[in-house]
Amino acid sequence: MRGWPLIRAWTILVYTFMFLPVAVVILLAFNANQFGAFPMTGFSLRWFVALWENDAIVRAFQTSLTLGLMTAIISTTLGVLASLALVRYDFPGKNSISTLLIAPILVPEVVLAVALLLFLQMLNIPKSFFLLLMGHVIFTLPFVVLVVQARLVAVKKDYEEAARSLGASPIQAFFQITLPLILPAVMAGGLFAFTISFDDITGTLFWKPGGVETVPTQIFAMLRNSISPEINALGAVMIMLTTGLPLIGIGVARWSASRRNK
Amino acid sequence: MATIEQSEKRAPWVLLSPALVTIALLLVIPLMFIVVYSFWLRTSVGGVEAAFSFGNWQEALTDRFYRDILLSTIRIAAITTIVCAFVGYPVAYFVARARGVNRGFLLLLLMLPFWVSYIIRTMSWINILGVSGALNSLLLAVGVIDEPIQMLYNETTVILGLVHFLLPFMILNTYVSLDGIDRALEDAANSLGANPMQTFWEVTLPLSVPGLAAGGLLCFVLGAGTYITPVILGGPTDAMFANLVFEAIITQLDWPLGAVLSLMLLVVLGAVVLTYNRFMGLGQIAKGIG
């Protein structure tokens, strides 16, 4: 086809557009220049050291990690149970239920944030880490449901039924047969929830109590002054974390799949 | 065996109940609640008072300020969506037609932006277009300009940031559609005498519309609801609707007005989602994300 080289060139251009700015963040994080801008004056790790020595940033990291982990645990538990129901059973109203489960994606995050905030304020529940956690659970849940559902379809029900017919209780069958089989789906869902929570900014800005910062809100606050090499270094650490974890996850999944096939 | 049958019937609801209760408590009830809240009054001491007043609605609906920003939010989201469609379609086509390792690699790269924080992707443009950014340094070095120029903080950079953020959604959704097209249909068109252009316009493009529409919906809804991009890449006059909501709720603590503004945004975007659902069905979105 004649247009093919043109389409290929366009694709390369668009991929460059998508990745170049992010690559520049990582590049500038290693810049020795004290203004953190071009021209690069040499290679240095000083900005990473500065991050480590900045208490506010270390605290923000701790908050983000705790929040991300707790969100992942709660969201994945709720999401896996719901996905099992949707994939394994037929029941009336199934379509409406699955639409309801993905509804938080369809409501703009700002609106979701305002609704939850005002609702809890009315109940006299002040802004707290708990509100932040609930908020993160509600908007990560649909993604967990979608990802887990897509993986669950591939896991057969036969093993579970065999265990049941051999006398296992439903709980035994779930923990000893079903859960090990769907573990990759559970991990994928949890990882997804973690990265979404870890990266979130809009909802977090509404829900966070005064004085509490997550890494994204910390970056946002620091940007108020101007861009600094420290922000680039912080960005670089976040990029490595939130892209590294899923990539390792995919790698482990491939590796264990290839071992099983041998 | 009636008991087993009964427990089989109950089982899905038992499994669903934790998620459904969570969604009801954290999403459905709060949304209904802000409808009530929007009629309440703000008291002079900064609290709120239960009432039934249209004052907040009247203020929000008649004030030109709110209407202008709502319209410009819709316009910015629409431009972003159209740009994403034109820029993303050829890329989705290339990925869908690529073979073997290449295709897996290209798809993996498309997932990467989802894992990089929105705020980092947005602020990364300051490194490129800022006064001491890459582009200014390049132009200075080449001698095209003598003084760095400020390219940031206008509507164009807001749209640029949004396109950068939303393009992967468009490409992935379009890809899913293009990938699902039975190639035999294109072959059939060719063998019946259609030239490649005709085949594309009359077979491939129409069959990829569901993905294009799903990508378009996500771009529009996420773009119109954005709060961060105008703050970081826009100037003082480039506020979008979500900025007004934030301003009302967090800065002015005028919660009833904030409730009204959120509902306005929800109604406008909800209408877009419902129109889409009427013609396409929301299931298509699930395909692109799962």
UniProtKB/TrEMBL annotation, chain B:
Protein name according to UniProt: Putrescine transport system permease protein
Protein family according to the UniProt entry: Belongs to the binding-protein-dependent transport system permease family. CysTW subfamily.
Membrane-protein topology: Multi-pass membrane protein
Organism: Maritalea myrionectae
All residue ranges annotated as the ABC transmembrane type-1 domain in the record: 70-276
InterPro entries xref list: MetI-like, MetI-like_sf
Keyword Cell membrane: yes
Compartments, as annotated in UniProt: Cell membrane
Thylakoid listed as a keyword: no
Keywords: Cell membrane, Membrane, Transmembrane, Transmembrane helix, Transport
Domain of life: Bacteria
Entry's Gene Ontology BP terms: transmembrane transport
Regions that span the bilayer: 12-40, 69-92, 104-120, 126-145, 157-176, 212-234, 255-276
Gene Ontology cellular-component annotations: plasma membrane
